[in-house]
Design brief:
303 residues; alpha/beta; Rossmann fold; eight-stranded mixed sheet; 11 helices; globular
Amino acid sequence: MFTVKSSARTRAHDRRTITLFDAVRWCTDNMAKGKPMISEGDLKLSASLGRIKHVIIVISGKGGVGKSTVSSNLAMSLSMKGFRAGIMDVDIHGPNIPKMLGLEDAPLAVRDGKLLPPEAANGLKVMSMAFLLPEKDSPVVWRGPMKMSAIRQFLEDVDWGELDHLVIDMPPGTGDEALSIVQLIPKADGMVVVTTPQDVALLDSRKSVVFGATANIPIIGVVENMSGFICPHCGECADIFKSGGGERTATEMGIQFLGRVPIEPKITESGDSGVPVVVSSPDSASAKAFMDIADKIVRTVMG
């Protein structure tokens, strides 16, 4: 299990801080051995998932569509609406969620043998591979089985507590991480497919929809990100990446269109500063779009 050392932050409930070195060594040792996929592990996984009411998977067919921006703002929107929410960053090779939520230097702690996920604003719980890297620039050079073991442990060895919604931020595409999630959480509430309006992105987003259908995971809907650029000076919107492609794709494939999110300088600023735009600029067009999309997702998964 974890090797930990005492910290000045120790509390009555025996909360102790893990050194990053110890955390990485623990992950590497356990993943290299390959955890059995049945027995006690399955009981731990079921117990952990049993405390999470709804699991929402955010996926994209390709990179560069702003999926992590969408994931972080949707998760924060849910927290702001009063839900007990968490976000799990399973982009093992490029974990950006802690940076986008202001938790880049957050320490990990353990209690009763489980990792305690750091909390962002509004009590949003966060788990990411970024917390386990010895240095920010350290690459993760793992094959599929190692990544699946990591994702499994993010679910069963992290104390998520009681959650209304767990948002899972996926890496681009439908590879190892996506397969791991659908195997570990076959009863996930559904997938949110993120795309941009241009044809190249739409082509790949359709593959994500088919992947969900193949894995028997419902598609909650499509989000068209970067849908128009709002000029910060005049307020006019220019369709630099076209517009309407996400809605058209949703209609053609018979799934729900969740909404459009425009490009605004505030989104980039908020991502770099670690404060999601729904918190830093709640009256902006993009923040209102995220909050509206979150409402549609809640209505869909909660019936």
